[in-house]
Amino acid sequence: MPELPEVETTCRGIAPHIVGRTVREVIVREPRLRWPVPAKLNQLMSGARFMSVSRRAKYLLVKTERGILMVHLGMSGSLRIMPADTPPLFHDHIDVVLDDGRCLRYHDPRRFGSFHWLESEQHPLLDHLGPEPLSDTFNGAYLYERSRARRIHVKQFIMDGKVVVGVGNIYANEALFMASIHPARGAGRIAAARYERLADTIKQVLGAAIEQGGTTLRDFVGGDGSPGYFAQQLRVYGREGQPCRVCQSQLKEIRQGGRSTVLCSQCQR
C-alpha cells in the first residue's frame, strides 16, 4: 500500500506536468472505486486550470479554479503522466486529459482508491486527522501528551491517523527500531525523553524515504514512472530471520493488529 513517502513522491512527480495546464476532459472507464466517482466529474473539471498539487496525509489535493480534486491511491493505485492516446490497460480506470495532449492516468487493480470533488479543503475524511509528521507541531512533547493513560501498543499509537498522519506499517517498524523502543510497549508507559527520540526518528525515516523516492512496493509506481529505492535502506521491515544491522542478533517477527512487526529483541527491550 502506498504510504506517505510514496504519496509525496507522486505529488512531486505529477505537479510539474499538470500545474498551469487546463483539463480538456475527464474519461471515467470504471466509476466503482472505494466510493463512487462523482457522476459529473467531467462536467465539473472540463475547462478548469490546475493551480497546485499538495498532500494531506495520504490524500492528494489537486486544486483547480473551480474546486479541488481529492485523490486517495488506496491499496494499489498509481497516477502517471502519459500521452492521452496511449491505449488503456485493463485497470486504467480514469484519465484526466490535458490541453497539451497528455493525460493524468489513474491505475488501480484493487479499486480501493477514491476520487472526490471538494468545494473547499473541508471534508469528513480530512477533518479529524492529526498533524503532519514532518511539521513543527509534531514533536516528542506532543506525543507524550497524547499518550498519557493510553494502554495500546506504541506501534498502534503512532499509526493512528488521529494522533499523527502517514506513519504506516513500514515506517513505524523502522522508526521504533531507530528509537530503541519495543513496538509492544504500552504507549502510556514511555517517558517524555523516549518520545523525543521517537518523534525525531519518525521525521528521519520519512524524510529519507521521500528524498529517495518512497519504498519500492510491487504495486507502486512514481508519478514519473520511476520506482522508489528506500527498500534498500530498511533496517528491520521485511528482514525477519536476518541479523540485526546493529548487534547481529536475529530479527524476529510478531503480529500486531493483523500486521507484521519485525524487531530486534536486543536493541528494542
Overview of this structure, please?
This protein has 269 residues and is an alpha+beta fold. The chain folds into two domains: 4-118, MutM-like, N-terminal (N-terminal domain of MutM-like DNA repair proteins, Alpha-Beta Barrel); 140-263, Helicase, Ruva Protein, domain 3. The chain is built from six helices and ten strands, in the order H-E-H-E-E-E-E-E-E-E-H-H-H-H-E-E. The strands form three sheets. A four-stranded antiparallel β-sheet has the order 1-6-7-5. The longest helix is centred in the C-terminal third of the chain and has 20 residues, at 192-211. The model has no long low-confidence stretch (mean pLDDT 92).
Layout of strands and helices, then pairs:
Layout: H1 4-18, E1 23-28, H2 41-45, E2 50-56, E3 59-64, E4 68-72, E5 78-83, E6 92-98, E7 102-107, E8 114-118, H3 140-147, H4 154-158, H5 169-178, H6 192-211, E9 252-256, E10 259-263
Antiparallel strand pairs: 1-6, 2-3, 3-4, 4-8, 5-7, 6-7, 9-10
Summary, kept brief:
The protein has about 270 residues and is of the alpha+beta class. It has helices spanning about 5-20, 40-45, 140-145, 155-160, 170-180, 190-210; strands at about 25-30, 50-55, 60-65, 70, 80-85, 90-100, 100-105, 115-120, 250-255, 260-265.
